[in-house]
Amino acid sequence: MKTCNVFITGGASGIGFGIAEELAQSGHHVILADINEQAAHDAAASLTAKGLSASAIVVDVTNAQSVAELPAALVDTPVDILINNAGIQHVSKLEDFPAQKWQQLINIMLVGPALLCQTFLPGMKSRNFGRIINIGSIHSLVASPYKSAYVAAKHGLLGLAKTIALEVEQADITINTLCPAYVKTPLVEQQIANQAKENGISEEQVISDIMLKPMPKKAFITIAELAASTQFLISPAARNMTAQTLVLDGGWTAR
Fold it and tell me: Angle 54-37-234 (CA atoms, 0-180°, nearest 5)?
């Protein structure tokens, strides 16, 4: 595959950084986009120190003007591959869920990806090439209590991908959604503590009785698995895969 410029939101840590490192090792240039400027620059510096091609950019994916200005800021590195990864979590019963926090989750994980697609699609169309990968979740397919905003946003990503796929059908552009079960990241570590508090159980019980219980394989999904799946989706072998939901769930949805 040709060398591409890859724009990854939430790229400074966790899943985003893991995918970025894998793609950079394959020769691509990765643009680590994050709302945390220092974290983004530190993450990019850690890759360039290894001889990899990486840069950093600050963006608030919920700010339409900030997102719209990205192509001008990246004029020398037009985006070929967009990975919508930025995300946050809040665990609470709906009746106790702060309205502003509910809206924030939707804005970051659903409105943000829509704005980024809107911004980068014209360039992809003009070059007749683009790959868009949404980092969804098992919660794009099923629900868990106390996560109403997260589940709603992740479900919405699937509809967004299907719609965009139809709108770009004449171009060599694909959009797909990766849906992993729990991945051991700082975001999930925080969820473990929050779930323990909300359910009145230990953190060990959260892992065994809530997170891994629905999975026949009883194992967290690794970032390496997601990175390899991303590699496949941007490869020529997947050029006719679009509007698809790739589920890495250890058998969760087989039940």
Answer: 35
Residue at 100 is within a domain: yes
146 is catalytic: no
Q: Please work out, in degrees rounded to the nearest 5, the angle formed at the alpha carbon of residue 52 by the alpha carbons of 46 and 55.
A: 65
Query: Which among 156, 217, 230, 232 has a CA at the least distance from the CA of 182?
Result: 217
Is residue 157 assigned to a domain?
yes
pLDDT tens, 211-244?
Answer: 999 999 999 999 999 999 999 999 999 999 999 9
- Per the CB < 8 A criterion, the answer to whether 157 and 109 are in contact is yes
Cα(131)–Cα(7) distance, rounded to whole angstroms? 10
Domain with 75, as residue range(s), is 5-182+221-250
Number of domains in the chain: 1
In a domain, 208, yes or no: no
Which tokens sit at 117? 């697609």
Task: Please give the biggest Cα pair distance in the chain.
Answer: 54
Question: Annotated catalytic residue: which of 120, 146, 150, 252?
Answer: 150
CATH code assigned at 149: 3.40.50.720
Question: pLDDT tens digits, residue range 118-156?
Answer: 999 999 999 999 999 999 999 999 999 999 999 999 999
Residue 206 in any domain: the answer is no
